[in-house]
Write a sequence for this structure.
């Protein structure tokens, strides 16, 4: 059992593979955080509760004579505000008299071996015996509110997941103003804060800052997890690198408003939190009702950032994604045609895709209603027969004729003012009574807290899936949510979204849904559960993608990203990069093309054939491999490199891209990682054979780069 309860000391030791998480009941009442870090056997009693008197830190009345007892200095597991702790609370409950003070005290606990599911929300699975769960109940005597803290311990990984239930056992209706899913107090503040920030076309760039006194915070108030700040942060010890040192990674399984924060207090300890966004949050909880938070994933690594990322990657591949699919090589017509297509044009495009090794054609935006630009028709999921007189069936047939399966774009959560749906049901759009709509990309957001709206979406999509036996959907979401009367609606919106996705993925188990939000504006474990691949960014420029894919890989497996080769000059940056380099970058994700194959030269067509052939081999190993970041573009801006090593260590693919070239022709040795040191590996291109230890310790001597943006794909195969 990886959860040990010491009855005498009233401590709980949660044991993972290489880490320990210890909490205990302090002074017979408070739930204290005692330790989180590299595995320890036990804690000496003298270390269990470290309380020292501090001026201006008050004590509860029952400790009148013991000034060292203050919640302001006690390291806690789930603090509240107003009764001697001035730091950020984990929970705020507003009572009928307006008071927001609570004082949660230990009530009881239980240890169970079934990981509980979370109602209406995605969460990680566990296999038989893989996890054990600790539930600690706290109670506020005045309101009779019970908080149940739930810890799931994956004992063969360095993973603990947490969430919280708030149960109203009192007689009054209360309002929850804040309920985070996890909180704990680290002993010191000597950490760097790593976050993934961005914007449309520049997602998940890495930013690292030292913690300082006060609050370091990431959040989204946009109604979705957003391009701006991913619901993830990591705390790195000061000497931590890619391969060495301690890291705590915290990721939220949720696709809406969230907040993650670290407060360094006056005694230099750090309070760490992640959960639902508290900005403007208010959830009414009546007597007898329970509120459940989404899940937080906490990963500990003592092998640096790469160790943390590999733990997240394995966990998400094996225990998060609802179902596994064949991920086909796609050609998507968005950058090829934008809205300007018809049946004839598509027929020509499809014909030119024949024989290239591409497996699926995805018809993007513009096939429905009277949508010839982005000003109309969202919500009217009926084919535009002026553009496509044979309907979707005919497009699917044309695709088949050229050896391709068919996939289709939807933006199900949106509604255009100029649409039949809006004319019939203006009330389906999110709106506040006394204000005008705000538009973004000319569109409004459907109110997914309304079950009728959810039914409409499920029915509209199901009709088309049934009609053409669709096996692939690209699910887009192109604006953030405004005019929300309160943040309760935002949470109900996300619950509505999950209910729609749950119904569709259950009804159509074969249907692969690619997530998208203007590229990577909603990349989080909540949506990944249902959409196992996500269009990483609307920026398809290979060089910009290096940064985006490198940053995204901090948490999310490369096998959940989508990368496409597009034309040059690139539509977003105007940059011209070699076709080969574009292929190498896109191949590091779910591979495809974002172009019209008709524009390819003869030589490029041959390159596409070679790329799809290489990718099909690579794909066999990609889903069963460990990912290693070898060169960090954010550090040098000089180059970027990563590799995939199959779990059996027999295959290794290395993707290297030089950014701007230099004239100095320096000797540059690239050291590989993760190989079997004593086995021999053959470089598939040169046929040379090296030992694993040589490749890892001496490295590969990179060639002189002939030009900017030079890309190299190495493939090594274990030969003896
Ligand atoms: C944004 C997506 O990210 C693009 O790939 C494309 O699907 C457009 N929307 C279509 O409107």
């Amino acid at each position: 059992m990886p959860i040990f309860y010491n009855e005498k000391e009233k401590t709980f030791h949660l044991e993972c593979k290489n880490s320990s998480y210890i909490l205990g009941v302090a002074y017979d009442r408070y739930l204290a955080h005692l330790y989180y870090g590299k595995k320890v056997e036990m804690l000496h009693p003298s270390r269990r509760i470290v309380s020292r008197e501090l001026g201006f830190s008050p004590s509860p009345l029952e400790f009148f004579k013991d000034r060292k007892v203050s919640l302001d200095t006690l390291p806690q597991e789930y603090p509240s505000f107003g009764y001697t702790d001035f730091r950020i609370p984990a929970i705020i409950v507003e009572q009928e008299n307006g008071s927001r003070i609570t004082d949660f005290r230990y009530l009881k606990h239980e240890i169970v071996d079934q990981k509980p599911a979370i109602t209406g929300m995605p969460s990680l699975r566990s296999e038989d015996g893989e996890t054990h769960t600790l539930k600690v109940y706290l109670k506020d005597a005045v309101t009779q509110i019970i908080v149940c803290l739930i810890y799931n311990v994956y004992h063969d990984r360095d993973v603990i997941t947490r969430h919280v239930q708030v149960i109203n056992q009192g007689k009054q209706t209360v309002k929850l103003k804040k309920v985070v899913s996890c909180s704990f107090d680290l002993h010191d503040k000597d950490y760097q804060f790593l976050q993934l920030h961005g914007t449309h076309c520049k997602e998940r760039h890495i930013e690292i800052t030292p913690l300082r006194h006060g609050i370091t915070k990431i959040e989204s108030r946009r109604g979705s997890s957003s391009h701006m700040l991913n619901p993830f942060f990591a705390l790195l010890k000061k000497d931590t690198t890619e391969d060495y040192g301690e890291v705590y990674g915290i990721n939220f399984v949720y696709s809406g408003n969230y907040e993650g924060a670290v407060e360094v207090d006056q005694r230099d300890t750090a309070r760490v939190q992640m959960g639902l966004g508290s900005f403007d949050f208010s959830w009414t909880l009546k007597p007898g009702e329970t509120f459940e938070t989404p899940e937080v994933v906490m990963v500990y690594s003592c092998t640096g950032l790469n160790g943390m990322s590999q733990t997240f990657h394995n966990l998400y591949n094996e225990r998060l994604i609802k179902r596994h699919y064949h991920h086909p090589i796609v050609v998507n017509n968005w950058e090829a045609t934008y809205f300007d297509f018809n049946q004839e044009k598509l027929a020509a495009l499809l014909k030119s895709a024949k024989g290239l090794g591409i497996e699926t054609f995805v018809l993007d935006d513009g096939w429905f209603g009277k949508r010839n630009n982005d000003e109309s028709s969202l919500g009217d999921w009926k084919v535009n027969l002026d553009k496509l007189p044979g309907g979707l069936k005919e497009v699917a047939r044309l695709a088949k004729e050229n050896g391709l399966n068919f996939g289709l774009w939807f933006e199900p959560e949106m509604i255009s003012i100029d649409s039949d749906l809006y004319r019939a049901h203006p009330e389906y759009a999110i709106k506040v009574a006394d204000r005008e709509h705000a538009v973004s990309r000319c569109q409004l957001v459907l109110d997914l807290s309304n079950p009728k709206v959810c039914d409409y979406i499920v029915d509209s999509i199901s009709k088309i899936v049934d009609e053409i036996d669709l096996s692939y959907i690209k699910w887009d979401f192109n604006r953030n949510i405004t005019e929300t009367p309160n943040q309760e609606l935002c949470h109900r919106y996300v619950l509505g979204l999950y209910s729609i996705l749950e119904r569709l993925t259950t009804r159509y188990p074969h249907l692969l849904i690619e997530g998208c939000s203007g590229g990577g504006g909603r990349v989080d474990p909540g949506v990944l559960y249902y959409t196992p691949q996500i269009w990483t960014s609307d920026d398809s420029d290979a060089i910009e993608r290096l940064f985006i894919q490198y940053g995204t890989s901090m948490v999310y497996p490369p096998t959940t990203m989508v990368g496409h080769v597009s034309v040059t000059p690139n539509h977003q940056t105007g940059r011209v990069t070699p076709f080969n380099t574009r292929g190498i970058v896109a191949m590091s994700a779910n591979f495809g093309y974002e172009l019209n194959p008709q524009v390819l030269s003869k030589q490029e067509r041959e390159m596409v054939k070679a790329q799809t052939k290489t990718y099909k081999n690579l794909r066999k190993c990609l889903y069963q491999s460990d990912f290693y970041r070898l060169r960090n573009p954010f550090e040098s801006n000089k180059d970027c490199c990563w590799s995939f090593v199959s779990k059996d260590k027999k295959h290794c693919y290395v993707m290297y891209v030089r950014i701007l070239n230099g004239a100095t022709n320096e000797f540059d040795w690239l050291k590989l990682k993760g190989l079997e040191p004593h086995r021999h590996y053959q470089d598939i291109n040169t046929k040379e054979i090296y030992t694993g230890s040589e490749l890892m310790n001496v490295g590969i001597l990179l060639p002189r780069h002939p030009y900017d943006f030079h890309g190299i794909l190495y493939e090594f195969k274990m030969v003896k």
Observations:
- The chain has three domains: 3-319, 330-535, 630-719.
- The two ends are 40 Å apart (CA to CA).
- The chain has a mean pLDDT of 96.
- The chain has 14 helices and 38 strands.
